[in-house]
Write a structure and sequence with these properties.
The chain is mainly alpha-helical and 488 residues long. The chain is built from 17 helices and 10 strands. Helices cover 48% and strands 6% of the residues.
Length: 488
C-alpha cells in the first residue's frame, strides 16, 4: 500500500505540474530535472498519458463514437456535439502528451540507454509508440521525426501519418530486438503502474500494439498480410488488460473523467447516446448495467445524438449517464481489443479460419473487463444468440460483426479508440436521423450538427498555440479531413 500511495503521489505531483503547461510548446519540458531517477519519470509519463487518455480523450471520444451526448440542460460540450470545435480546443491535450508524456519518456529512454537497461528502454519505447499512435490517429500529420529536440529545433516539421506509422513500427521492432538480444530486467519495478515491469507482459503488449498498427493500415496500400500473419502465427498477445488502476476516491487521485465530469462539473453534461444505449437495451445485453447508470426514475433512457432542442426542459438526471467511478481504471489496451484485432486478421488474411472463436473470445473478454462473467455472454454469442457470429465469404459482412462488438467493448474503456475504429471501418454506419436501426448498430448525424449533409468529424484542428508558434504547421481547413488510413 505504501508503494501504491507513493506512485499516486508522484502521479498527482506531475499532473499538477502539467496542468500549468497551456502556454508551452512541444519542445519544452519543465517537468524533467537534469538528473532524476528514471523510474519516477516513467511513472510521471504514464500518469500524463492516462490523464489525457482517460480525461479529455474519453470525453471527446465519447461524443464522436456516440457513447454519450450533451445534456439538454447544460452546454459545456455543445461545441463537440455540434461538430463545431475551434482551434483552441486541444491546446492542453497537445501539451499534456508532447511536453509532458513524450518528453518524460524520452528522458527515460536516454537514461535507460546509458544504463544498458534494455527492459526499461522497451517499456518507455512502447509507451512512446502508443502515444504517437494516438496523436497521429487524432490529428493526422504531426511533428514526429523532428519533435522533442528542445532548443535545437523549436519549429519541427510535420511528418505524414504513413511515415509516422513506418517509424513507429521500426522503433517498436528495434526496442524488442534490443531487449531479446540482451534481456536486462527493468529496474523500475512497481513504479511501472501498468504491468509492474513484468517483461513478458510488455513483450505481449509490443506484439499486440504492432498488430494494431498493421490492422489500422488494412485499407491502404501499406497493408501487410505477411507481417500480420507472422504475428498471428506467433500468437504471443496480451493475456491481461494493460491498464492504470491506482485511482482513489479523492480529488486529484480519481479517474480523470470522473474527477472532471462527475465530481468537479457536477455530472450535468454527459448523458447516454441512444446509439449505444438502445443497442445494448434492445439486445438485452448485460453490459448495459455496467456502462450506464439508470436515471432518477430508475430506468435506462438515452438521447439521440445532439437532440438537445427537443428536450430543452429536461435535466441530465432524467437520462442515463456514464457509469464511471472515481476508481475506474484507464485502459491502454484490453484482451478483448486484442481478440477483435486477431479476428479481423483472420477474416482479412486467413479465409476466416478461427474468426468465430476469436470473435467469441473478444465478446467474453469484454464482459470480463466490465466485471461480468464470460458465461454471461454465452446466451448472446451461442447458437441462435443475437450476437452469434455468422461466417461469410464477404469480408465486410463478416467484419461488421467484429467491429460492432469492438465498438461496444471500447465504451468507457478506451473511447477514443472507438472513434478511431469507426473512422477506419465506417462501422457502425452513419445514417440520417429517422432511418437508424439501433438494434443492429448505427450512428446518426448529430441533430444539431453545423456541418452539411451527412458529414461528421474525422479529426480535430491543430492547437492554435502550435500553429501560431510553428510556421511548419498549417491549420486544417475542416475537421472533416480524413486521416490517411481512412480509405475504405
Amino acid at each position: 500500500m505504501n508503494t501504491m500511495k507513493k506512485i499516486i503521489g508522484i502521479f498527482v505531483l506531475f499532473a499538477l505540474l502539467t496542468a500549468c503547461e497551456k502556454e508551452l510548446d512541444i519542445n519544452t519540458d519543465p517537468n524533467t530535472p537534469t538528473d532524476v531517477n528514471k523510474s519516477l519519470v516513467l511513472t510521471a509519463a504514464q500518469g500524463s498519458l492516462v490523464t489525457g487518455l482517460g480525461g479529455q480523450l474519453t470525453n471527446l471520444g465519447g461524443f464522436l463514437a456516440q457513447y454519450h451526448t450533451q445534456s439538454p440542460s447544460a452546454s459545456q460540450y455543445t461545441n463537440i456535439d455540434t461538430y463545431n470545435m475551434n482551434t483552441d480546443y486541444s491546446n492542453r491535450l497537445w501539451n499534456e502528451l508532447y511536453a509532458g508524456c513524450l518528453n518524460d519518456l524520452n528522458y527515460v529512454i536516454e537514461k535507460s540507454t546509458e544504463d544498458g537497461d534494455t527492459g526499461t528502454l522497451l517499456i518507455a519505447t512502447l509507451l512512446r509508440v502508443y502515444t504517437f499512435q494516438v496523436l497521429t490517429d487524432l490529428y493526422g500529420d504531426i511533428p514526429y521525426s523532428e519533435a522533442l529536440q528542445g532548443e535545437d529545433n523549436i519549429t519541427p516539421n510535420i511528418d505524414s501519418g504513413s511515415d509516422i506509422y513506418t517509424g513507429l513500427i521500426s522503433e517498436l521492432n528495434e526496442a524488442v530486438s534490443n531487449y531479446t538480444s540482451n534481456p536486462v530486467q527493468s529496474t523500475v519495478g512497481t513504479q511501472d503502474a501498468i504491468y509492474g515491469a513484468n517483461m513478458s507482459d510488455w513483450i505481449k503488449f509490443a506484439n499486440t500494439l504492432k498488430l494494431k498498427l498493421y490492422i489500422r493500415m488494412s485499407y491502404t496500400n501499406m497493408a501487410n498480410a505477411g507481417q500480420v500473419m507472422a504475428l498471428i502465427n506467433e500468437g504471443n498477445f496480451i493475456t491481461s488488460d494493460a491498464k492504470f488502476d491506482l485511482y482513489e476516491d479523492a480529488q486529484n487521485k480519481a479517474n480523470p473523467f470522473y474527477d472532471v465530469q462527475l465530481d468537479r462539473l457536477g455530472d450535468v453534461n454527459n448523458v447516454a447516446s441512444s446509439s449505444l444505449l438502445e443497442f445494448l437495451s434492445e439486445n438485452a445485453d448485460p453490459r448495459l448495467n455496467v456502462v450506464f447508470r439508470r436515471n432518477d426514475a430508475n430506468i435506462f433512457r438515452g438521447l439521440d445524438q445532439g437532440d438537445r432542442g427537443s428536450f430543452a426542459s429536461e435535466v441530465a438526471a432524467n437520462f442515463s449517464r456514464p457509469n464511471v467511478t472515481s476508481e475506474t481504471p484507464v485502459y491502454l489496451m484490453t484482451v478483448a481489443e486484442s481478440k477483435f484485432l486477431q479476428a479481423e486478421a483472420a477474416i482479412r488474411y486467413a479465409g476466416g479460419v478461427n474468426a468465430a472463436q476469436l470473435y467469441n473470445e473478444g465478446v467474453e473478454n469484454s464482459f470480463i473487463t466490465y466485471g461480468l462473467s464470460a458465461s454471461d455472454a454465452q446466451a448472446l454469442i451461442g447458437t441462435g444468440g443475437i450476437y452469434e457470429y455468422i461466417p461469410s465469404t464477404d469480408i465486410e459482412e463478416a467484419l461488421r460483426q467484429v467491429m460492432i462488438q469492438k465498438w461496444v467493448s471500447l465504451a468507457y474503456v478506451n473511447n477514443i479508440e472507438g472513434f478511431f475504429e469507426s473512422n477506419r471501418t465506417h462501422y457502425p454506419e452513419t445514417v440520417t436521423i429517422g432511418s437508424e436501426n439501433y438494434v443492429e448498430g448505427n450512428f446518426v448525424v448529430s441533430v444539431s450538427s453545423v456541418l452539411t449533409g451527412n458529414q461528421t468529424p474525422n479529426t480535430i484542428f491543430y492547437p492554435d498555440t502550435e500553429v501560431t508558434k510553428n510556421p511548419n504547421i498549417t491549420q486544417k481547413g475542416s475537421i472533416t479531413e480524413k486521416i490517411w488510413w481512412d480509405q475504405k
